[in-house]
Write a structure and sequence with these properties.
By secondary structure, this protein is α/β, with parallel strands linked by helices. The protein has helices spanning 3-9, 13-28, 50-61, 90-112, 121-145, 239-251, 272-284, 345-348, 385-400, 431-436, 452-457, 502-509, 515-518, 529-538; strands spanning 41-46, 65-70, 157-162, 164-169, 172-178, 185-197, 201-203, 216-217, 231-235, 255-261, 288-301, 304-312, 319-321, 325-327, 329-332, 336-338, 372-374, 416-418, 424-428, 441-447, 474-480, 487-493, 553-557, 566-570. The chain folds into 3 domains: 16-83 and 156-202 and 337-400, FAD/NAD(P)-binding domain, CATH 3.50.50; 216-334, FAD/NAD(P)-binding domain; 416-570, FAD/NAD-linked reductase, C-terminal dimerisation domain (Enolase-like, domain 1), CATH 3.30.390. Strands 8, 9, 10, 11, 12, 13, 14 and 15 form an 8-stranded mixed β-sheet that branches.
Length: 593
């Protein structure tokens, strides 16, 4: 049904086939220059997603010959160039999130005027695929230009070939290419000095409930739906599950059930105040949250899928089945698994770790083959585009550094965004992690409702009172409880929260004090002023006094007396402001999140 839209993403198929024919001729000619070690390429990269693409560009910077091998696109199964960073994942889902947000605001204004705004699902899919195609074209344009050095003679060259690569020994792979006209496959043998494996990951299936793409979906199947489903159960309430719950509830066409298996609250890896804030917003948006439950069965029926859940009883370890409910679609969001099958890792002598990913050291180097590196989701570490890109670049820098090699990568100050309602951004420790590590610290929270930009933004929500939650939120900072006041972590919740986190990431990465931010003149009016006010509050000289505003507070934690959390300053009506002790927030260590 959506073939005419899907073809936008494949519009360069003729270009790809011509590139492949060119590469085949290049590989079969005896005049092709060899590397100093007698191989075809200095670097061969398997996977054209964020890590592979970033690694290829960095290899060009070093003047190396790079072969970037990416599996041909297969709709609903193999994403193609750009990987899940573009197709089925980050870019596509966040485009849908932005479209759902726009839809909700337009729909609210139309309702106020007595009109009906009816946006079709096929239009959402078209716009999403257009965004994917635009980014893929950008990548192809650059790879085409980097087939040779720049006009000043700087740079190496990159050959892009869309084929399946498989190791036959530690320095050799076979490339399986589709022949023109569907005349079968042609295999070519290629050798390289170094390898970067960046094959990404795929949605995890539950063995008893495999995704069929019709009734039971995973994230790869979203764009293949014919219309908005009337109802949907999302199995798994991690970040991806919560983002899709936000998207479909915001469009206002789908009743969403968010199934949070065996957990008492959403996002247990984050502090309880954030979890409660987001849960309330989900409930206001009409999402039904099923906490502390187990999935008992999924049964296909005439109108969709019958979902049976069992809930844990208070004070008991037993789960009691509840009344089933029927939904049109089930979206499985139970994690992702590294793509390690079919690559020939055993023939290459590349070991895997207990998590199912490739075993690497702090530089991304294989623990068993020093000339082979891996980056991104295939290492089963942190499934983020920005992390994959950094790991891909770092691996190539380690391969070809001529002087002092880069220091090992640190993931202590990774900035993340959760596209919920409202937006959430995080960096560094949260409060419960600081307590788990027994670090004396102070915490300050500044509500966005005290910031001028949030007040300016309020009129756009006047047509829909429930949408006022878009204009709410807060900034929370955790610092060491000493004279240095070193920043440990920060959380921002609210509109444009992702724009607030960069300065905090810089301070955490360099172990700097928040005093560095106090005298920085922030733009006005801007949500960034909430960050500065949070810093001032921690230093005892804020313009917004926390004993006056309920959305602002300041407290101290001493691990020597963990049951006595001291409220340095808080509004008298603050829900957590009470005399005496306060129990510690549970840790999330050993929790998969």
């Amino acid at each position: 049904m959506f073939q005419k839209y899907l073809s936008r993403v494949d519009s360069s198929s003729l270009f790809r086939s011509s590139r492949n024919r060119l590469l085949v001729r290049c590989l079969t000619t005896t005049s092709r220059p060899k590397t100093a070690k007698g191989n075809d390429f200095n670097l061969l990269i398997i996977g054209g997603g964020p890590a592979g693409y970033a690694g290829a560009i960095r290899g060009w910077d070093y003047g190396q010959s790079v072969c970037l091998v990416d599996a041909p696109r297969v709709e609903g199964r193999v994403p193609g160039l750009g990987g899940v960073g573009i197709h089925y994942g980050a870019l596509s889902s966040k485009t849908m999130w932005q479209l759902s947000r726009r839809n909700r605001m337009i729909r609210s204004a139309f309702t106020e005027a007595g009109l009906v705004y009816d946006e079709k699902w096929r239009d959402i899919v078209k716009l999403t695929l257009d965004a994917e195609a635009a980014k893929e074209r950008q990548m192809r344009t650059q790879l085409t230009a980097l087939t040779h050095a720049n006009p000043f003679g700087v740079g190496g060259h990159i050959e892009l070939v869309e084929a399946r690569a498989k190791f036959i020994n530690p320095h050799t792979v076979t490339l399986s290419l589709e022949q023109e006209g569907g005349a079968g496959q042609e295999e070519k043998v290629v050798t390289a000095d170094h390898f970067l494996i960046a094959t990404g990951s795929s949605p995890r299936d539950l063995a008893q409930y495999p995704a069929d793409g019709v009734h039971i979906l995973n994230s790869d199947h979203i764009a293949s739906m014919a219309d908005f489903p009337e109802s949907m159960a999302i199995i798994g309430a991690g970040v991806i599950g919560c983002e899709y719950a936000t998207i479909f509830s915001s469009f206002g066409r789908t009743k969403v059930h968010l199934v949070n298996q065996r957990r008492e609250r959403l996002l247990p890896q984050e502090d309880e105040d954030m979890s409660l804030f987001l849960s309330r917003n989900f409930e206001r948006a009409g999402v039904s949250i099923h906490n502390q439950c187990q999935l008992m069965s999924l049964d296909k029926v005439d109108k969709g899928v019958r979902v049976t859940l069992a809930y844990q009883q208070a004070g008991s370890k037993d789960y009691i089945p509840a009344e089933p409910f029927v939904v049109e679609k089930v979206l499985m969001s139970v994690g992702r698994v590294p793509n390690t099958k079919g690559v020939g890792l055993e023939q290459a002598g590349v070991a895997m770790d207990a998590s199912g990913g490739i075993s690497v050291d702090d530089h991304g180097r294989s623990t068993t083959q020093p000339h082979v590196f891996a980056a991104g989701d295939v290492t089963a570490d942190i499934g983020l585009v920005n992390v994959a890109e950094m790991e891909g670049r770092h691996a190539v820098e380690t391969m070809f550094c001529s002087e002092e090699c880069p220091t090992p990568l640190s993931h202590d100050n990774v900035s993340t965004i959760m596209f919920l309602r409202p937006e959430v951004s995080c960096v560094g420790m949260n409060e419960q992690e600081a307590r788990h590590k027994a670090i004396p610290h102070r915490v300050a929270v500044v509500g966005m409702d005290t910031v001028n930009r949030a007040i300016i933004n309020r009129p756009q929500y006047v047509h829909d009172p429930s949408a006022l939650l878009e204009g709410t939120g807060y900034v929370k900072m955790i610092v060491t409880d000493d004279e240095q006041a070193r920043l440990l972590g920060m959380r921002a919740v609210g509109e444009d929260a992702s724009a607030l986190i960069q300065s905090a990431a810089l301070l955490i990465g360099h172990k700097l004090s928040i005093r560095q931010l106090e005298r920085t003149i922030q733009p006005h009016p801007a949500t960034a002023e909430a960050v500065q006010e949070c810093v001032r509050m921690l230093l005892g000289r804020s313009m917004t006094k926390p004993h006056i505003f309920p959305s602002c507070w300041l407290r101290r934690y001493d691990p020597k007396n963990p049951e006595d959390t001291q409220w340095v300053m808080a509004h008298a009506k603050h829900p957590q402001h009470k005399q005496g002790s306060q129990a510690s927030v549970p840790t999330y260590m050993d929790d998969s999140g």
